[in-house]
Design goal:
The protein is α/β, with parallel strands linked by helices and 760 residues long. Among the domains are: 5-141; 292-465, Rossmann fold, CATH 3.40.50; 505-565 and 601-757, Spore Coat Polysaccharide Biosynthesis Protein SpsA, Chain A (Alpha-Beta Complex), CATH 3.90.550.10. The protein is built from 16 helices and 24 strands. The strands form six sheets. Strands 6, 7, 8, 9, 10 and 11 form a six-stranded mixed beta sheet that branches. The protein has a six-stranded mixed beta sheet with strand order 18-16-15-19-24-20. Helix 7 packs across helix 9. It is elongated, with a radius of gyration of 45 Å.
Length: 760
């Protein structure tokens, strides 16, 4: 055990000072007693004599003693004055020693704090070194090739190719009717579009224009995977690239009567009596544009009519007459439910084939009825061979748009039924259950009604709204069928607010005013999250989520919240690369937990996206507080001001890059743009005046890693209902109810950020 000599010397000084004080104090007491005795003696001899002889005696016997005592008293007084002066000198020395003691104590405390800080830094460096060693071992053992977005590879084109297999075209399947050699797995989908006449029909021009704006068109037929032709009335075999059997061709047939399917081309049509399952495409009804302002609200769940139908058929089979009779009786129900069932058009009757139910009235009149209907009835054509007609597809389109949940009686081919989960948007049952329709609809709860209506509205908006959305949906469905990758997510270029020759001034970050004793995590070099590691499996394993949860089958994301995690034991046996289990998997308390990131995913970092606008010093202070935050990869400052930052503005050096990005316009939604400078899956979106402690940031990051499909944040708010006037209010008061997370301080996933930026 070492000896603290500085502390020992201080103790000796204090002991010596106390000894001197004790000696002086004792001497003063002795003097006080002596002087008291002298005064007592004076008092003894100070009396009034009675006789003259007494006076003579006193003068004779005590005069010498009094003189001696006077001299002793004077010596005592001189000694007292000398001791008092020495005491003052000692007091001055004592105060000086105390000042020195205070100064030395302060230096000792500062030295101890500095030693503690150095020990903490040493511990951080040691732990970071351990992580670096693990990273080095992982890099040495890594044998998986890096993946990237699909490359552009031009396929070989054989002009003299013959039939692939000699199979009947009426029974075509993708396996033997499609030439996959023109669609390499690593090639993006390319489409060659045949031209149409300038004076073509309006519908033809609508589809032609939608295809031209799809972004998949190529002028070079030799690199095309698919060849599209819109409503061509002439002989298809005379097309330049038909090659005898129409392989890899997609014919958009807008005729009411279907063309012959005796070729290997894929037919997309609304009317079908020869639909080849999993090969041909059911073409949905759509319009050039759609007025979203006419959309009714999703609530209330129950509307005026429980079920509505307006239609007229030219001839009725005996079986169909029974179904019609049962449905007509619904209007005679003794319950409070109201039905609008008309099998005879009162106003206009749209042209239709003999076996299908024609639409009644105008688009506006049907809109008003559907807005007042909870459910909308759709009857399949009488001829079971006809699985789709234009009127059926139009009824489905209008029902989804105006929130009347489709009730489909009979079998029909629904658009994109291999991709869309129609059970979440419609009620489908055979015509034989017509007698049970009323009972079934009454058993559906309000929550299910609103869920069905909401899902139907979303798929209408994402997949059916306009010709452009239908074309994008059709191409995505074809691409999934061919197992081709979607186009990578288009990132926003991160244009620097500084010119290429300007170097911004840098300064050391201000000293932190936070005192956090706990260790929060290692300080590591920047680590980018893996990108595009599931190009193929994402399109196959997560097909349902892409179409029915995210509603985004059109793009390939760098990573998604739906990426699977490996089982617990796999992190220690064979699949440990990148994982940082707590205490090597043994677990532990706070110390062991804070040393590594742990969790169910490999180690990763996060990016701070800070929205800034003309509050330079506030922003600089917020940036300085991010110094040495564990797991921080980069800070992106979204500069919303039209004026560039001041040239003399000093940017703090916080240990990670600070990228200042300029934007095209001043918008609060710029925080959601998927900037190409973002290299991590996790994003912490903050305002320039947010003050978060390091432990709060790390805690939020750890929580997000276990809830990647959620927005994780700190400031919560509540949407409160106004009982007097109706409608919602934004409630920022203290409340036990929270329903939203403010975007000024939140963590999210890159796909969520991209979806947010495309929602405004």
């Amino acid at each position: 055990m070492g000896i603290n000599f500085k502390k020992l010397s201080l103790n000796r000084c204090i002991a010596g000072t106390l000894a001197i004080y004790l000696v002086i104090f004792g001497f003063i007491i002795i003097m006080h007693i002596s002087i008291s005795n002298i005064y007592a003696m004076f008092s003894k001899y100070s009396y009034s004599p009675t006789y003259e002889s007494d006076v003579t005696y006193v003068e004779a016997t005590d005069l010498s003693k009094m003189s001696s005592l006077r001299f002793s008293l004077e010596d005592m007084i001189r000694l007292k004055n000398s001791v008092s002066m020495e005491l003052r000198d000692l007091e001055l020395k004592r105060r000086k020693i105390l000042d020195e003691l205070t100064t030395l104590t302060k230096k000792v405390n500062e030295t101890r704090a500095e030693i503690l800080k150095v020990q903490v830094e040493k511990e951080k460096v040691y732990k970071s070194l351990e992580q670096a060693k693990v990273m080095r071992l992982e890099a040495m053992e890594k044998n998986t090739p890096e993946l990237a977005p699909p490359l552009h590879i031009v396929p070989q084109y054989d002009k003299e190719s013959k039939y692939i297999f000699d199979k009947s075209a009426s029974q075509c399947r993708l396996d033997y009717c499609f030439d996959f050699s023109q669609c390499p797995l690593t090639e993006e989908l390319k489409v060659f579009l045949y031209p149409v006449a300038e004076r073509a029909f309006v519908d033809t021009l609508m589809w032609q224009k939608a295809l031209e704006s799809s972004g998949f068109i190529t002028k070079n037929p030799e690199e095309a995977c698919l060849y599209f032709v819109v409503n061509l009335n002439k002989d298809l075999t005379k097309l330049a690239h038909w090659r005898g059997d129409g392989r890899n061709h997609v014919v958009i047939d807008l005729n009411n009567k279907s063309l012959s399917s005796m070729s290997r081309a894929i037919y997309a049509r609304q009317y079908s009596s020869s639909y080849r399952k999993n090969y041909d495409i059911v073409l949905p009804f759509t319009k050039v544009s759609s007025d979203i302002l006419s959309l009714p609200p999703l609530s209330p769940a129950r509307r005026k009519y429980l079920l509505s139908f307006q239609g007229e058929v030219k001839s009725q089979s005996p079986e169909e007459q029974i179904v019609i009779s049962v449905l007509k009786k619904l209007q005679l129900s003794t319950t409070d439910d109201k039905f609008l069932i008309h099998f005879k058009c009162i106003n206009n009757v749209l042209s239709a084939e003999e076996e299908e139910y024609a639409l009644c009235g105008t688009y506006q009149s049907r809109e008003e009825i559907l807005k007042e209907s909870t459910f909308s009835l759709i009857l399949s054509p009488q001829d079971f061979k006809i699985t789709s007609t234009k009127s059926v597809q139009q009824r489905l389109y209008e029902s989804l748009k105006f929130g009347a949940i489709p009730v489909i009686l009979g079998y029909i081919d629904i658009p994109f039924q291999n991709e869309i989960d129609w059970s979440r948007a419609a009620i489908i049952m055979p015509k034989a259950r017509a007698t049970e329709v009323h009972y079934l609809l009454r058993t559906i709860s309000d929550a299910d009604v609103l869920s069905l209506r909401r899902f139907g509205r979303i798929i209408w908006d994402k997949y059916f709204k306009t010709a452009e959305t239908v074309v994008a949906t059709m191409l995505s469905a074809l691409r999934d069928t061919l197992r081709l990758f979607p186009s990578p997510l288009e990132e926003t270029p991160s244009l620097s607010v500084f010119n290429s020759t300007f170097n911004p001034l840098k300064t050391d970050p201000p000293p932190s005013d936070e005192e956090i004793d706990e260790y929060l995590g290692p300080i590591e070099p920047p680590l980018a999250s893996p990108k595009f590691v599931r190009n193929y499996t994402y399109t196959t394993m997560n097909s349902y989520e892409r179409w029915n949860v995210m509603f985004e089958p059109f793009h390939l994301f760098q990573n998604t919240p739906f990426d699977p995690v490996v089982p617990t034991e796999a992190r220690f046996v064979g699949s440990s690369n990148g994982f940082r289990p707590v205490n090597g998997g043994a677990g532990g308390a706070g110390k062991e937990f804070s040393e590594v990131i742990g969790g169910n995913r490999p180690r990763e970092q996060f990016t701070v996206v800070m929205l800034a606008y003309e509050r330079d010093q506030v922003m600089i202070a917020s940036l300085g507080r991010l110094n040495e935050v564990p797991y921080l990869n980069k800070v992106i400052v979204v500069w919303n001001s039209r004026q560039p930052p001041a040239e003399d503005l000093q940017w703090p050096d916080i240990g990670v890059p600070i990228v200042v990005v300029k934007t095209e316009k001043n918008s609060l939604n710029n925080r959601f743009l998927p900037f190409d400078e973002i290299e991590t899956e996790a994003i912490l979106s903050v305002d320039d005046d947010v003050h978060l402690r390091h432990d709060e940031i790390v805690f939020g990051f750890r929580v997000w890693r276990e809830q990647r499909d959620r927005i994780v944040g700190f400031p919560g708010r509540f949407h409160a209902w106004d009982p007097l006037y109706g409608g919602w209010h934004y409630n920022s008061n203290y409340s036990c109810e929270l329903s939203m997370v403010l975007t000024g301080n939140q963590s999210m996933d890159i796909p969520l950020s991209w979806l947010s930026s495309n929602s405004f």
